Amino acid sequence: xxxxxxxxxxxxxxxxxxxxxxxxxxxxxxxxxxxxxxxxxxxxxxxxxxxxxxxxxxxxxxxxxxxxxxxxxxxxxxxxxxxxxxxxxxxxxxxxxxxxxxxxxxxxxxxxxxxxxxxxxxxxxxxxxxxxxxxxxxxxxxxxxxxxxxxxxxxxxxxxxxxxxxxxxxxxxxxxxxxxxxxxxxxxxxxxxxxxxxxxxxxxxxxxxxxxxxxxxxxxxxxxxxxxxxxxxxxxxxxxxxxxxxxxxxxxxxxxxxxxxxxxxxxxxxxxxxxxxxxxxxxxxxxxxxxxxxxxxxxxxxxxxxxxxxxxxxxxxxxxxxxxxxxxxxxxxxxxxxxxxxxxxxxxxxxxxxxxxxxxxxxxxxxxxxxxxxxxxxxxxxxxxxxx
Length: 388
Ligand SMILES: Cc1cc2nc3c(=O)[nH]c(=O)nc-3n(C[C@H](O)[C@H](O)[C@H](O)COP(=O)(O)O)c2cc1C
What we know:
This protein is α+β, with helices and mostly antiparallel strands. The chain is built from 18 helices and 11 strands. It starts with a helix and ends with a strand. The site of flavin mononucleotide (FMN) has 18 residues, from helix 3. Residues 20-24, 74, 77-78, 81, 159-160, 162, 243, 333-336, 374 line the site of flavin mononucleotide.
């Protein structure tokens, strides 16, 4: 197998694994094929050469969230976030990357077999090749290493921030920097439209929607049971996925953590509905929304809601999220508004989205707090190299 390309893939996964995902479930899988062979050629624009490597990004069926039908959308967007960082890291190593979309396409038996062997849904295959065949000199190697280290530093310090933001309203220059588009269209597509909502009436409207509907998250037994599986209570337990209680509520003593572990458990939460605890939590979340100066909204035309466009939207979101982090801006997604039809449709009419579906909504603002811990799976659990 082309060891140089395999090393580049592993380096890229080391970076891409820091992509955000719903509940930090990290639903991605990377499969590389040593010899793509004729059976896979059918979807590739030309047969694979000996110095090329075929690398597939897939949705890992064992890791996907499925308590609500709308979570399918979040799974494709999450894989797109990973794909964006993967592309960035692989091309930083002077590796060329040609995309062959596998989702929304009729796959032949060999592809289907590959998907079923790996219990996954194939999303996109990438033909990777080195840009030149000259042996890299020491200077080039050290430049690539330093670029990758800088990128790793940036991606591994980005965090979802769930506290109060500074109340600055972004000015036009900041917004155009945040939304500037440098990644290729073949990766991010053209369909997703992103903007920052700053209209005070709209923010109040969204606040009311959160107060009214966010309890759905906490009081739906099935949805909360799945969320609770991803809550981590012990910072010492070396988790590989999920999110720590502290990243929701800030640092707290052990006694209080134990208390939350108990009261947040799904059965207890069901009982606490009788005394309106889910409603109280929704109200607290809505206060954060009310104090936000802006919301990031990403939408897709309803006619363009394909899996491929959702993955591409994820890549576009990653470009914005990374640029935001670079500028000291953090995001806090409020997905409960999108996970149920009624709040989503009300939100869409509030924001005058005609014939468009909102696929991502987040509070956005400057922060000056240190990053909290966010666990990740190791590279070897994400990557499977298949021999011929
Ligand atoms: C599509 C998507 C939806 C998300 N929805 C929420 C949400 O509703 N509430 C929340 O607090 N975090 C949400 N998150 C943030 C994830 O929980 C977070 O990315 C993950 O726990 C990893 O943490 P990190 O972003 O700090 O690395 C969402 C992330 C993604 C990608």
